[in-house]
Amino acid sequence: MSDSSAPFEVPVTPEVGLTVAAVARRLGVAPATLRTWDRRYGIGPSGHSAGAHRRYSVEDLMRLEIMRALVFDGCSPADAARAALEADAGLARESVEPDRGVAAPTERGRAGGGQVVPIHGGAAQARGLSRAALALDSPAVRRILKESLNTRGTVWTWDNIISPVLVGVGERFQSTGQGIELEHILSEGVVGALREVAESLVEPFGSRPIILAAAPDELHTLPLHAVAAGLAERGVATRMLGARVPLDALMSAVARSGSPAVMVWAHDRITGDYLDVHALRKMKSAPAVVLGGPGWPGTLPDGAVLSHDLTEAVTRLSNAARGFI
């Protein structure tokens, strides 16, 4: 029996190319997201003819597929775009140095020589973290992360160590179909280290915590743990509801806690009907509604704001906790 709900995929040819709407359907993202990626990161259509809209070529689509996969795996759009462009240009290089342990870190160099996880940019410790994940060395993963979190803080560690390694692991999986175990080791270590930071907050500002939740059917919560840790460093308490949180459960948590703000994360594409921002804003605490992740549609629910990176999310939520928004 045929599946009438299956997406209709238009074949792409070098002569014709694809429109932005066709590529959006093919990738499962909003057309507005594709335009944003083009404008901000240079990942866009290369084909153009006089009097016609620009069209995506086969090569353009391949770059977008890499970027989409990395973003959906939790990488920042900027890192994902850089990796996609480097892969396209043949610049992704893998070191073949023998494994002699993690080298002493330098400010922007690379620690060690990880043999199969490419690391694009990032700090020196990113290379050491990738090698620890390759060795399935959970204690080393936690040790590297803890040291960086203690000395540099959550946002720097996320942007310069965690995100580049997630990009590399995602690339490895895209090219070889292997590496799920690396992702799991890395994710467990990251969550544990970030949770330790979040739980270290003893005297939070105020008595009303920020609510963090993933959208219904959304299993990815790693970025929410980074937000919780970043807020703890600013003296702001959070309550982590975790994955797959229905709207009624979110509203109940807000009502019981009097939260001044909520953040809802969505990796996978969802409809704008999920989040009743108007109902949330009408609650007694009138919480600010901050969204995160690539799963939100191009047109956001009225009254909500979208944070594009960890710094923006932590700043918005911290301001809300202090009554600035």
Automatic annotation (TrEMBL):
Q: Which UniProt keywords apply?
A: DNA-binding
PROSITE patterns linked to this entry: HTH_MERR_2
* Keyword DNA-binding set for record: yes
Q: Name one GO molecular function term.
A: DNA-binding transcription factor activity
Q: Which stretches of sequence are listed as region Disordered?
A: 95-116
The molecule here is called Unannotated protein
Q: Which InterPro entries match?
A: Cbl-bd_cap, DNA-bd_dom_put_sf, MerR-type_HTH_dom, MerR_fam, Meth_synthase_dom
Give the source species: freshwater metagenome
Q: Which residues form the HTH merR-type domain?
A: 17-86
Offer one Pfam family short name for this entry: MerR_1
Q: Which Gene3D superfamilies match?
A: 1.10.1660.10, Cobalamin-binding domain (3.40.50.280), Methionine synthase domain (1.10.1240.10)
